[in-house]
Each structure stands twice: as structure tokens, then as C-alpha cells.
Amino acid sequence: MKRACFGWVVLCALFVTQGCRAPSQSWDGTWKLNLSKSSFESPTFIISISADGEYRFGENSSHTFRCDGKDRPVGRNRTLVCVKSGVTALDITLKENGVKTRATHDELSTDGKDFTTTVTDFRPNGPVNTYQIVFSRLSGSNGFAGRWWDTSYLQEHAEMTLRLDNQALHIHYPSTGQHIDAPLGGAEAVVRGPNVPEGTTYAVRLARRREFLTLTKRSGKVLTQGSLDLSNDGRVLTDSWWNPDKPAAKSTLVYEKH
Length: 258
Known about the structure:
By secondary structure, this protein is mostly beta strands. The chain has two domains: 19-41 and 154-257, Lipocalin; 44-150, Lipocalin, CATH 2.40.128. The protein is built from two helices and 20 strands. It has helices at residues 2-14, 152-156, and strands spanning 29-33, 44-49, 54-57, 64-66, 72-75, 78-85, 89-96, 99-108, 114-121, 129-137, 146-150, 159-164, 168-173, 178-183, 189-190, 200-208, 211-218, 221-230, 236-243, 246-257. The strands form two sheets. A ten-stranded antiparallel β-sheet has the order 14-13-12-1-20-19-18-17-16-15. Strands 4-3-2-11-10-9-8-7-6-5 form a ten-stranded antiparallel β-sheet, with no helix packed on it. The longest helix is centred in the first third of the chain and has 13 residues, at 2-14.
């Protein structure tokens, strides 16, 4: 009992300027995303195909290529080759100075409503990294042409486990293996796990017993600020974030405890 009390004394000392508003212990547990109650704008993009077979990614993008099996220059010392397998699959290989750096396999679902990109990154001084991204169709009906949106973020964040102690808020996303050990005082913590962009950090700072303020950076630049807000009954967790330059464009994921 003395040890437990001492732990809470230490925790209170961390937040003495906030009147010892120690965080609720209801944060601990497994949380599952309720998509119907969430509001999230995933990035979208357009694929168009010209009459002579040129592929263009993006509405105003200069990223174009032909799927004819030939290596073509796409920038300084870089080439791209695309091989088409009917209307359902594309295999694209990027090289730099003649060395393969990335390979992607894009394949349409049988109903044409989704396509999956399997990405393999080849690193000269590291392991080969392979991951998948699933896109859902918003418009178009013929092959890859149309508007698509990235569903991977929601899939990766469909479940979250939290553990709070007197030093940090521990966050884990089981579907990706990504995890964060964020100190309670607001110090930046490295986001660890597969497919995390290098230099990504996450910080939490106590605002109230049932709310943490959050800050995400990449290579020192602020990406988003937001909050983790726990309901009074401890059963609902709301994760909100926004770009500091566009505070009205808020995204919200609502989780329920399981």
C-alpha cells in the first residue's frame, strides 16, 4: 500500500502546476474503433489513362508513365518500368543508378471496387521492407481509372491498446506493431514499428484527468496537434487531431472499450 501511495505522490508531483489533477486510470485496456461515429478524411487521388495508354497519377501531377515493359527515365539517375497484366494488375519497378529501390504490385479486386498495392522497398544498408495499402474506389468503373481513397490508416488504427503508469502513456496498434511510450510531461517520444516514417515523434501532455493534449512531429516539423479525450464513464475514447494551419479540418476517431 505504501508503495502504491508513493507512486501517486510522484505522479502528482509531475503535475503540481495543474493542482495534482492526476490522470484517470480508466485509460488502460483495449479500444476498438467505431467507424460510424468517427469523422476522418483520408487522402484521395485520381488515376487517369489516356487514349494512347499513358497513366497519370493525381489531378495536376506530372507523375506519368507508360506500361510497356521499357525502362524510362523519371528523374535524375532514376528509371521506372511498368508491366501490365491484363486490366487487373500492374507491376512497377523503380531503379536508381541501375539498382532496384522499390517494386510495387497493384491488383484490382474481382469486383473492381478496391485495389491493393504491395510495396517492397530495397535498402542498400538495411532489410527489405514489404507492406500493403488498400484503396477503395470513389468513382470510375473501368480498370484502374477513377478516384481512389486510402483506407490503410483506418485499418491500421482499428484497434488500440493503452497502458498508463506514473511515467508514460503506452500506446500500441496490434495490426501494425507500431507503439509509442509517451512521457506524461510532454517530452517527444519516437513512434516505433514497421512502416513508420523516419523522424516521427509523438508527445502527450495532461490537460485534465480525462484529457491529454497531443502533438505529432516529423523531423522536428509539427504535423498535427490534437487531444485524447476519455468519457466520464471511461467507456469511450475520442482521438482528435488537426493541422495547426487548418484547425477547422479536424479528424476524429471514436473508440469503445472492449
